[in-house]
Design brief:
Blueprint (H helix, E strand, L loop, with lengths): L3 E5 L11 H10 L4 E11 L2 E2 L1 H18 L6 E9 L5 H10 L4 E5 L17 H21 L4 E2 L22 H13 L3 E5 L14 H9 L5 E4 L12 H10 L4 E6 L2 E6 L1
Parallel strand pairs: 1-2, 2-4, 4-5, 5-6, 6-7, 7-8
Antiparallel strand pairs: 2-3, 9-10
The structure holds zinc ion (ZN) (2 copies).
């Protein structure tokens, strides 16, 4: 059994107050083999996350030291780029400055300025307009292209409990299919994120049909992450993610070192 948690946050991210040591300890308690800290760096047309900017040097120093420490879990240095396509120059400059192991590409804020978590979901029409914009932003993220794995494809669903009728992205299958096709064509990874197990829909995501489509299009790289912001969530539900992946036909998961994939049997 090989466990990789390649989506986690410490206090170098604006929304976590856990130290890197606490996150490592949390991962160790769940027998995680590889832990990648992927701190938030979100982008806007006129700049990027100030919190990340402030801790950038300290984070790099600590992560590079831990990367060479030879402990279990193996600790890797990552980053989660939020909508880097809205400021590609800043995003590429960040990537050029750091010797990251893994880069997650995500959408947290829509290109019309709406924060997906901060939006007031007053009806199904709001959910639909968020999804509509979200998938077109994912398309732009793919066109930007400088990341290793596509983070939490089902992200907007997390905040739609009570309004979104069923725990599925199936109504958007036609929108999602070309995104997965392009992701596979670029040879990038698709992330299975287990945060959904701690949300109203109680399952890792994206769903099996999306993973099967990705595989059908030639996608071979998949990553697994808890999206933990606290040590107690580190490594949580990774076996559920692996079971989902096996059901969809995958027999390996990927980790990235210096942005090169390494495959591990599951
Ligand atoms: Zn995220
Ligand atoms: Zn995250």
């Amino acid at each position: 059994m090989f466990l990789a948690d390649t989506h986690t946050h410490s206090s170098y991210s604006f929304d976590s107050s856990s130290s890197v040591e606490q996150m490592i300890q949390g991962a160790r308690q769940r027998q995680v083999d590889v832990l990648c800290l992927t701190e938030h760096c979100d982008f806007w047309p006129d700049g990027r996350c100030l919190h990340y900017q402030k801790g950038e040097q300290a984070c790099e120093k600590q992560m590079l030291a831990l990367r060479g420490a030879g402990q279990k879990p193996q600790v890797l240095y990552g980053v989660e780029l939020g909508q880097p396509q809205v400021n590609p120059a800043e995003a590429r400059a960040l990537l050029a400055r750091h010797d990251y192991d893994m880069v997650i590409g995500s959408i947290h804020t829509l290109s019309d300025g709406r924060d997906i978590y901060g939006t007031r979901y007053t009806g199904l029409d709001v959910c639909e307009s968020v999804f509509d914009r979200y998938f077109s932003d994912v398309e732009d993220l793919l066109a930007f292209g400088d990341f290793d794995t596509l983070g939490h494809l089902d992200y907007p669903m997390r905040v739609m409990g009570g309004l979104w009728p069923a725990p599925t992205l199936a109504p958007y299958r036609e929108r999602i299919a070309p995104l997965l096709k392009e992701l596979a064509r670029q040879g990038k990874a698709l992330e299975v994120n287990t945060k959904g197990c701690r949300e109203w829909f109680r399952q890792p995501g994206p769903e099996r049909w999306a993973l099967e489509l990705f595989r059908q299009y030639g996608g071979r790289l998949v990553t697994t992450g808890s999206d933990a912001h606290k040590p107690q969530n580190c490594g949580q539900d990774l076996l559920a993610a692996q079971a989902l992946l096996r059901a969809a036909g995958f027999d390996c998961i990927a980790t990235f070192e210096r942005r090169q994939p390494r495959l591990h049997k599951i």
